[in-house]
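Tokens in:
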């Protein structure tokens, strides 16, 4: 999927498909790129998330931008989502370190153990959002949980995007483990630092996806086998 995405994205950014153009049909792209329809559809969804295309039911996929600016996850752009997460989740982690209950810690530890064992990306993404909700719950302020609930769909979409294109799962598990360990220790400073580091890594991975280094493999021919 990553190879198909890189090929299509490069074709758009080079102007082979200009803004307003309709991409070839799924059947034609599958034949040309020699990939299955599920793989192609994943790549097309990623193009839409990046803001390069829009899919119109019954009409096809159309190019709407020539370069990637700011991916969109559900109702929110990546930049808006990250800005809010920094202002909410970092202090929330600090409050959680000071206010967490034994039940909160048990729930987080159990959830983290499941995430570290999980190999299915879809299941892991669902638990990823539950993890951030659980940290908000540990802060013992229902407003924090409500805020995370509001952006839950966007968090899930972003998580799936980062895992599919950035291989974030194992790294994220380590970052989550550091957050939980800080909560267990009851260290407000360590908890806020661990959450800030987690969000820094999210931002770095997003940036690497949106502005990848140019390589010859994406400028000549189709995607590599």
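Residues out:
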């Amino acid at each position: 999927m990553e190879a198909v995405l890189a090929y299509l994205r490069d074709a758009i950014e080079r102007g082979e498909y200009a803004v307003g153009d309709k991409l070839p049909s799924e059947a034609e792209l599958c034949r040309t790129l020699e990939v299955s329809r599920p793989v192609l559809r994943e790549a097309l969804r990623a193009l839409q998330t990046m803001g390069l295309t829009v899919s119109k039911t019954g009409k096809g996929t159309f190019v709407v931008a020539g370069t990637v600016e700011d991916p969109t996850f559900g109702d929110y752009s990546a930049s808006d989502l990250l800005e809010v997460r920094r202002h909410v989740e970092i202090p929330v982690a600090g409050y959680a370190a000071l206010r967490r209950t034994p039940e909160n810690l048990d729930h987080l530890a159990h959830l983290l153990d499941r995430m570290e064992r999980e190999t299915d990306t879809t299941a892991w993404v669902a638990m990823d959002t539950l993890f951030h909700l659980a940290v908000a719950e540990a802060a013992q302020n229902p407003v924090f949980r409500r805020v995370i609930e509001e952006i839950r769909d966007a968090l899930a979409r972003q998580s799936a995007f980062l895992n599919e294109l950035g291989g974030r799962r194992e790294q994220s598990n380590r970052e989550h483990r550091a957050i939980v360990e800080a909560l267990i220790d009851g260290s407000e400073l360590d908890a806020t630092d661990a959450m800030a580091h987690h969000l820094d890594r999210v931002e770095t991975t997003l940036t690497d996806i949106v502005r990848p280094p140019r390589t010859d493999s994406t400028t000549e021919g189709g995607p590599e086998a």
